Amino acid sequence: MPPGMxxxxxxxxxxxxxxxxxxxxxxxxxxxxxxAYCEAVARYEQAAELLDASGPLVRGARSGxxxxxxxxxxxxxxxxxxxxxxRDLGFLPSAREGLRGPVGEADPLEAWLAGTVGG
Length: 119
What we know:
Elements: H1 7-20, H2 31-54, E1 57-59, E2 66-68, H3 71-89, H4 93-96, H5 108-113
Antiparallel strand pairs: 1-2
């Protein structure tokens, strides 16, 4: 795990590695993308919780009229980042479809999905 990650992002990191670590899909070169994914998930969760608490509309600072809560944009932006990184890292079923191990070796992801590797 890279140093300096927020505790919420660290929890996501550990959860993802517990789920996919034994598959061989993630390698050390994926560390930066995984970190960005984990941080986006942590921000998403925090912003979604605040949005739920404050509601979809808030009073505008200048006019005092009801306006769309700015947290919508943060939630949407992080959801988009999560989806993009999840696809690139092979976290989505459609992304895993084309993943293959080195020639001549069994596909570690298929073995994991079949329940013959790790847990």
